[in-house]
Amino acid sequence: MGDLATDFKYYADGKVNNLYDLKSKFIILFFYEPGCPYCESAMAILKKDEDFSKLLNINVVLLAIYPDGERKIWEQYAENIPNYWINGIDLEKTILKRSLYDLKASTTIYLLD
Question: Redoxin domain location, by residue (predicted)?
Fold first, then answer.
């Protein structure tokens, strides 16, 4: 049995949400930076993978989080995030300020169960 993931607030779909509010067997946390070549490469691989896309429709939720909190940049980049992912932003930069997750490099991906 593992540790509980740290809860945090994020803005998506016009409202503030919490990680703990997501209900799914598995949650993929995908921390990204708009324009980051490694992030875009990882996104391209995941978008093309049909088996991965099928999983997202069954037991997996993917929460893409831009932790740097720059809303204008996030909004301009939103079209690059697949519409079947949850695209969120940490407007208060709490994830970074409190070091809630180890984000030494982008892309950083966590699998939560």
Answer: 2-82
Mean pLDDT rounded to a whole number for the chain: 90
What is the count of structural domains for the chain?
Answer: 1
- List the one residue out of 57, 62, 64, 112 whose CA is nearest residue 88: 64
Q: Which of 10-24, 29-43, 46-60, 76-90 has the lowest mean pLDDT?
A: 46-60
pTM: 0.90
Residue 3 lies in a domain: no
Please report, for the domain that includes residue 53, its CATH number: 3.40.30.10
60-66/26-31 β-pairing: parallel
In this structure, is residue 54 part of a structural domain?
Answer: yes
Reported in sequence order, the residue ranges of 21-59 that DSSP labels E, i.e. its strands, are 26-31
